[in-house]
Structures are given as structure tokens and as C-alpha cells.
Design brief:
With 308 residues, the protein is α/β, with parallel strands linked by helices. Helix content is 27%, strand content 29%. The protein has seven helices and 17 strands. Strands 5, 8, 9, 12, 13, 16 and 17 form a seven-stranded mixed sheet that branches. The relative contact order is 0.17.
Amino acid sequence: MGNGVRYVMSAEDLYAENISSKVVQLRNILQEQFNKKINLLLESKRPRKAYSTKGKLCSRKLYQTPFNDTVFSKHINNPTSDTTIIMLIDASGSMENGTYVHAGGETFNLERIQICNAVVSAFANSISRVVNDQIKLEVFTKTSADTASGNMGIKGAFPNLTRVYSNTRKSKKATTERILGLKTRSPMMKKFEDGRTYGIGSSTPEYAVLPALHNWIKKNVTTKNVVIFNLTDGDTYCSVNERQIGNDFTKLMREKYLRHIDNVTLYIDGEATEEAKHIYGDNVIGTDGDFVAPMFNELIKIFNNAVQ
């Protein structure tokens, strides 16, 4: 505080007033692709027909009775998904940089944050419309408020984890359309005496938010399985109490907090290099080519391993 300025927390500054038609177009293309693949996440858990010595007589198998008595059919019902996917969107300043992404035979030149928004909005819509929200989805932004040293007794750009969407909590504001307007902003704002507000930019905390997320999961997630889906352009930069953290810190946080949690990283404007895997683990997917297929391949492997 000082000079008639105080700091407030507000989610309103996280969203743009207008959404680019190109972002909507990309989301729609991705959603069409996701719709074709989202069912595969639950395929191993769907009811299937099996034959045994008890059940409903199957007339088509009666001819086998002299040498096989499994002529009765029954349906085996495996449980539906008991999984929550948590998407973490990097909303730091570098995510405003433009990049190219290819989808549906078209090339889009958009901000990195806009590409993230399109991916997450498309994924949320597909889960809702194709599998009726059987997969639980939570979406957060990760930011570091770029504030002057000493504000609120904290020196540096401290991490923020902000929940922006949930399909377990129905809210008029938390919609898949609103996700498309997310900006590279921290929820912390400067508020002046004359009523003006000024949004504060953001550095890159990356996995510095995992301790807070870990506590949130313990208190709020009721499913047996959790998948962390990280969307980022990499390069950790954040500081708390004059301690600056970087990619090595992100690696340490991943090893500590994601050791027993399945996780995937979508590396916006990046490739799945050995350096990227060193930081984020082996499940890194670059967006320099077709990222939809490898993204779902990773998720399908995770979901198949989570069959109860």
C-alpha cells in the first residue's frame, strides 16, 4: 500500500472483453477432433458381453453344446471413469507471444495463451457433450504477481493458483466460452483511490504452485485417480523472499509432488526435447506438429492403467 494505492484480488481482470474469431475457430476444429477420441478414454470401462455357463441362453451358440457349455450370455459392467483431470494453464507474460499451430489442415497464428484456451475449452466441451461429464475436469491458471518488493510483506513475484473452471461446480460465470478469453494476468490488481484498477502482469511460477494444488486436491477431489495436465511455454521464473527459482526448481517440485500422480505436459511452441523431458518428465508433447493424437495416446494409456 502507499500513495493512494492498495492491492486487491479479483478474477475479473483475468478475461479479455472480446474473443478473437480465430480462437473460436481453432477451438471448434479441436473440439471436432476431440469428440472422435474422447470416448477412447472410457472404452476399457464400457459394458461388454461375455459367455459363461450361467446367464441368458444364447440361441446362436446352442450348436456348441456337445463340446462347450458356455452358451449363456451376460454383460460385464466395468465402472465408469473415477478420474479427475486438472489442467494448469501458464498465464505468464511470455504466453502473449505469438506462435503458429496446425489443426484441421489449417494454420493459426495466435498468442500462446489463446492456443491453451482453445485446447482447454474444446476438451471441456467434448467431456460434457460426448461422455456427459463422466470425467471430472478442473482448470486453474498459474501466475506470479509482478509486484514491487515488499508489498504485503512479501518480496518478489509470488505464485498464484486460480480456479477458472470446473464441471463439478455449475456456475454461470465458469463456462467453457469464458475460458477462451483468459489473459496473461495475475488475479492481483492495483486499486487507486479514484476507483481505477490496474491489472498486474505475471511471471512464470510453473510447479511452484504444486504445494497449494496438493492441499486443494486432498480437500476437494473425491475420485480415486488424478491426472495433472500442464499447458506451458516453459522457462520458470519466479521469486519469493528474494529467492529466485528456475527450471531446476520445477524439476524438484515435479519429483516431489507428482511422483505418484500421472501427468502430461503440452509444451506450447516447443518440442519434446531431452531438456524439456528433464524438467517436466517423459510425457511431454510438443505443438510443432500434430499434437492431438499424441496427447490422447498419453491420456488413453493413463486411463487404461487406472481401470479399477
